[in-house]
Amino acid sequence: MRIGVCYFPEHWPRERWKTDVAQMAEAGLEYVRMAEFSWAVLEPERGEFEFEWLDEAVDLIGEYGMQAVLCTPTATPPKWLVDERPEILQAEPDGTVREHGSRRHYCFNSAAYREETDRIVSKLAERYADDPHVAGWQTDNEFGCHRTVRCYCDDCADAFREWLAETYGSIEALNEAWGNTFWSQRYASFEAVDPPGPTAAEHHPSRLLDYARFSSDSVVDYNRLQVDLLREANPDWFVTHNFMGRFPTLDAYAVSEDLDLVSWDSYPTGFVQDRLEGEPTPDQLRAGDPDQLGMDHDLYRSALDRPFWVMEQQPGDVNWPPHCPQPGEGAMRLWAHHASAHGADAVLYFRWRRCLEGQEQYHAGLRKQDGSPDRGYEDAIRAAAELADVGEADHVDASVALLFDYDNLWALDEQPHAPDFDYWSLLDAFYGACRARGVQVDVVHPTTALSGYDAVVAPALHLVTDGLAKRLTDYVETGGELLFGPRTGVKDEYNKLRPAPQPGPLADLVGATVDQHESLPSQVETRVCRVDGDETYAFRTWSEWLEADAATPLFEYDTDGIEAGRTAAVENGVREGRVVYCGVWPGADLADALVAPLLERAGVPSCDRLPEGLRVGERGDYTWVTNFSSDRFAIEPDEDVEWLVGERTVDAYDVAVADGRIVDGLSVERLDSR
């Protein structure tokens, strides 16, 4: 586990660079990322390249025993290029052009921009191909940030028609697959299909889903252009891209197939404000949510089934969320450890020093604008020393897989059927129940081989093919434990309802079908109870009335409404395995009541339900205890262990690392706060 930083030497006087780099080395940093927004400095006018400043910075980094990670600067095309070739700019659905003056304003399908990308990336790759201080490259920066995956310009219209022709072969096949007899939406040719622009009513859901797929594929293809150029120059470089947490429009699995290393940018106190449902708690405003971060870590780790990097780690207060609270004392150290527990091999803080200019002046760095240490600096030093003492840890070996799919995300986003139905939040309910039991989780695509997992959780497989149904059936029949959430098996891969009751091709596996469904506002009573007991549990937003066939009812509706007594969840034994189908969006208690017996049947080591904010993660032979709350806890393993970092008492926003795997049988005691 290594610690690094993001640095912008072009923002500072040259005479300051040596001091900055020396201080980075003194702090124990090992990687320095540079140049992601530097095109206008590297090429101030067409064909006039100025690489000497970057050469000097790279040499300094090498001189002090660190390595450089360089970035292709394509996220910010310079003004002279926009003026010369305005066709590179993106367009909104209504045709409004996204102008120069910010970032990410180019179109992925612009032939002109791909030509310019080839030119600048080739120049940079050639320049540093033999430089021993350059460890690898990051392509571009945060594909999809600022809602920029989907463009609606003429180049995208042409590319979309070509994509459809390649996908469907004939316009008749497209009309049939989409179901274009509805509202007289049939097309006579692929040339007649436009990107989805402003309409009087809703767009056709199949058209929207394919435009989402096409737009993501466009990014995949553009990224591959850069990857190929870099690998051609030096096949020993690693090539990565820095994804963002929970970006809804880009298929990170598909982009990752062309990368050597997956990385992402982590901003915990911002993400709980703009990507987590509901109002954040005071503790979350200080440290973020461990399960929100954990699911992102696990998604990017699972994309290539290998360790990942955090390419940008929040270093203090940040400029872009609605509010910018100061993180809790020690939170910047906590985040590095939490990432390591989930499989990160490096954490790079963003940035070295608070900027004096531009849009990010209110974004903290490890050092203040005058160069003096800021709050995150000591945290980074301490994290670097502690993780070096822990030593090398094996890859995370997760026993549970959570199935996540961008096609399902896009389809449900288009037709949520309830204002508060959010795909990510539904995943949170099931993922959080697993993590609250101390279980590590791989967040994998449904096409992933599942035989190596003891249990599989599928919160919302909305789109299900016959092939996927067969694979899941095979998994259960050979001894797998499978948990389904609501809205499973509703549609086919074209986003059309099937001419069969939900869950469609999974009905035989589940042993039940859905008779009715409903979405419910908060003022409606939403509770279920065990069929064979008195316990009652809350649910929210979505419910399905199940008709059990071969399955055994587990929960029924405990209300006075028309659904009273109807089945809400079932279980079905299928040869050597078992499947549970939950037809409601579970609250935390119900999610735990579903997950705990699943883990027990599957033989997955786990602990009693952990307090909110406290999480435990095993990686190799080590166990991390991370506390995202302002409370104090005493950790009681089943047997004596050596604490490599911290001790059994874990303070607010603190961390402890044990030499050994301690989840099984672990108990926790809440202590009085200091």
The major β-sheet equals:
11 strands, mixed
- What are the segments in which pLDDT stays under 50 over at least 5 consecutive residues? none
Structural class: alpha/beta
From the alpha carbons, calculate the radius of gyration and give it in angstroms: 26 Å
The domain count comes to: 3
The fraction of residues in strands falls at: 15-25%
For the terminal residues, how far apart are their CA atoms? 31 Å
CATH classification, class level of the largest domain:
Alpha Beta
Relevant CATH superfamily of the largest domain = Glycosidases
**What is the count of β-strands?**
26
Give the fraction of residues assigned to helices. 25-40%
**CATH topology type of the largest domain:** TIM Barrel
Rough outline: globular
**Average residue-wise pLDDT:** 97
| Named CATH architecture of the largest domain | Alpha-Beta Barrel
List the total number of helices: 19
Explain how this protein is built:
The protein is α/β, with parallel strands linked by helices and 674 residues long. It folds into three domains: 2-149 and 237-390, Glycosidases (TIM Barrel, Alpha-Beta Barrel), CATH 3.20.20.80; 400-602, Class I glutamine amidotransferase (GATase) domain (Rossmann fold, 3-Layer(aba) Sandwich); 614-671, Immunoglobulin-like, CATH 2.60.40. It has 19 helices and 26 strands. Strands 9, 10, 11, 12, 13, 14, 15, 16, 17, 18 and 19 form an eleven-stranded mixed sheet that branches. It has an eight-stranded parallel beta barrel with strand order 1-2-3-4-5-6-7-8, surrounded by five helices. Helix 1 (14-26) runs parallel beside helix 3 (52-63), helix 8 runs antiparallel to helix 15 (406-414) and helix 13 runs parallel beside helix 14 (375-390). The two termini are 31 Å apart. The model has no long low-confidence stretch (mean pLDDT 97).
